[in-house]
Amino acid sequence: MSRILKEYLKNQIKRIILGHTVKLETTDDSIIFKLQKNSFFGNQYILIKHRETGKRISLLIKNSKAELYKYELEDM
Q1: All structural domains of the chain with their residue ranges
Q2: Which of 2, 10, 66, 67 would suit a FRET pair with 60, their CA atoms being 20 to 30 Å apart?
Q3: What span, in angstroms and rounded, lies between the C-alpha atoms of 7 and 4?
Q4: What pLDDT sits at residue 3?
Q5: Averaged pLDDT, groups of 10, the chain, 76 residues long
Q6: How many Cβ atoms sit within 10 Å of the Cβ of residue 34?
Q7: SS (HEC) of the chain
Q8: In angstroms, rounded to a whole number, what is the distance separating the alpha carbons of residues 20 and 22?
Q9: pTM
């Protein structure tokens, strides 16, 4: 693959990734991540990582939303 094509694809992917926004909503027992301008295909996830322990929570995004329950954070 030519260097020009690789650079073009890299820039297109970067534009798509940086082009979405995330809004947060809270309920009594959860945090809801709402993605806007989401243009990815296939399964998408939000990854939450505890900096000190390295423990991770992976949230599947469905219908441009992912929900993180507070008990999951407490288990971290």
Answers
A1: 21-75
A2: 10
A3: 5
A4: 86
A5: 85 76 91 78 84 92 91 86
A6: 15
A7: CCHHHHHHHHHHHHHHHHCCEEEEEECCCEEEEEEECCCCCCCCEEEEECCCCCCEEEEECECCEEEEEHHHHHHC
A8: 7
A9: 0.66
